[in-house]
Amino acid sequence: MLVAGVVILAGGASLFAWRWYSKPTTLTIAVGSLDGEASKVVTALASKLAQQKAPVRLSMVEAGSALDAANAFSSGKVDLAVVRGDVGDLSQAQAVAIVAHAVVLLVAPPGSAITDMASLKRVAVGVIGVDGNRRLIKVLTDEYDLTRSGVTFKNLAPADVRRALDAKEVRAVLIMMPLAEKYLTLLRGLFPPSAKSGPVLIPIESAGAIAEKDRAYESFDVPKGTLRGSPANPADDVTTLRTSFYLVAQKKLDNDVIADLTESLMNARRDLIPEYPLLGQISTPDTDASAYIPLHPGAAAFYNGTQESFLDQWGNIIFLTPMILGGLASAIAAAWKFLQAGGPPSREEALDALYALGRRIRASSGLAELDEIEGEIDRVLQGQRGKEIAGEEEAREAVALNVAAHRLENLIHDRRLALAAQQNGVPNAQTPT
Q: pTM score > 0.85 for this model?
């Protein structure tokens, strides 16, 4: 029963430990976009992770925009967020993946005379989502001195762009979006259709210089024919700016959790690309130490192929634990023996003590010394009688003690007689052996 109880206890503890180790971790993620597409994609990813029984799950927190998602992340309300690289406070962020690239498009209506940044003098530019584009507006204003040129910016909702263009309230539109077919279709729908020409993409020729000053941006060339294939619109590559949407994690999150999350997301992405083509833009962030948003060590372990398995993480502990426990048991036993040193001697020690008394008896020179030896014999025997005898071997040891004590008593008796004879003047009195 004792063995069975120990086995059941060990098995239960092992099962509990395994269930605790394999229990999925749920992380909160803030997502926001003007059209709600980002929320749909993350919801699909969260469902796929649950379906695949991934070790990490996602709980989405809806945010109104990329700015709101960044604010929720910087305030510590969520573990993860999908943020734009030029929006919000990202000082506590570490990159897990690049979700998509967003391209800056400064677009004028078909047939417009505005063809470059110098043509924007005293022009009102409509901005879709001005709150999330304030940093972009500032870098453009500083680079091209747009304030001096009389350029103003007006916030517009996508549904109001066509009306504002027709009413001449704005002469161009500034929008930041991924170059995906869904968003290109949305952009084309903002302008009146034209069979001969399409919207005019205004190049940002100083994109390289801006990227040098502000690492949130990079120079990018919009490929020829992006808006329309025949005739090609634009007719040639157009230089502009680009930033990225990142999936970021708090620095405090465990490396193993983020490594598992990254692996699970990449596996789920492959299955969802046919339904959500935007997932095809998910890619590895910059792995350099000087990256604009540093890579989370857990994500780096996945991308570099240095993830540790269960045995890698716990192998040393599993190997060393029995050795440590054995050493502790030995130390405890030694300490216990040391603490027991003042107690009754063992039967082996008692026999050794009795055998040693034989020599003292033979060499004794007086009755007082013999009385003292008898007292020692009594104390040894009394200490041993206080121990419970259990088993055949202990019984044999008790018989040996009694035999030794009986022999010592005979020696004491004979020595007493010899000492008495010496006192009475009997010559050559010796103690029998």
A: no
